[in-house]
Specification:
By secondary structure, the protein is mostly helical. The chain has one domain. Helix content is 67%, strand content 0%.
């Protein structure tokens, strides 16, 4: 990594410590979305913002070495197919699109809502990867005032 790439050492150190806590909080929001406010969209946005924090602190070059952007793009595309597969499976087993085909469990427990946590995880993956890939693409394809790619 070039010394001039990214921000100052203080920002990089704070980012290195805080990004994992932010990702953990996003995972918590995704997994508990059926019990409390939150869910797949909110948790996905939180995780995408954690990755954006790394992009801002360390620069574009670090992100291309740290993350496999092609894999993120494939994950974003396949999450839509997984969502559709869960919906079709609900149609085949439960009688309607996105019908619950998993046991309800006990009320107010983590596994008490059937397919909703699965759908929250898939939506979280889709939102997180989609938002970050869009922001990364905008960071890579920066246009100058004359409309030329830099």
């Amino acid at each position: 990594m070039k010394p001039s790439e990214g921000m100052t050492l203080i920002v990089k150190t704070v980012t290195r410590i805080s990004v994992w806590l932010i990702i953990l909080y996003g995972i918590y929001i995704i997994l508990h979305g059926h019990l409390s406010p939150g869910g797949g969209f909110a948790g996905g946005v939180i995780i995408a913002l954690a990755l954006l924090n790394v992009l801002l602190a360390y620069g574009r070059g670090f992100i291309t070495r740290w993350l496999n952007i092609g894999f993120l793009h494939d994950l974003e595309s396949s999450s839509a197919a997984i969502f559709l597969a869960i919906g079709i499976l609900g149609m085949a087993v439960g009688g309607g699109f996105l019908a619950n085909f998993i046991s309800h469990g006990k009320l107010f427990n983590l596994l008490s809502s059937g397919t909703i946590p699965l759908l929250n995880i898939v939506i979280g993956l889709k939102v997180c990867t989609g938002l970050f890939v869009v922001v990364w693409t905008l960071a890579i394809f920066h246009l100058s005032d004359k409309g030329e790619k830099q």
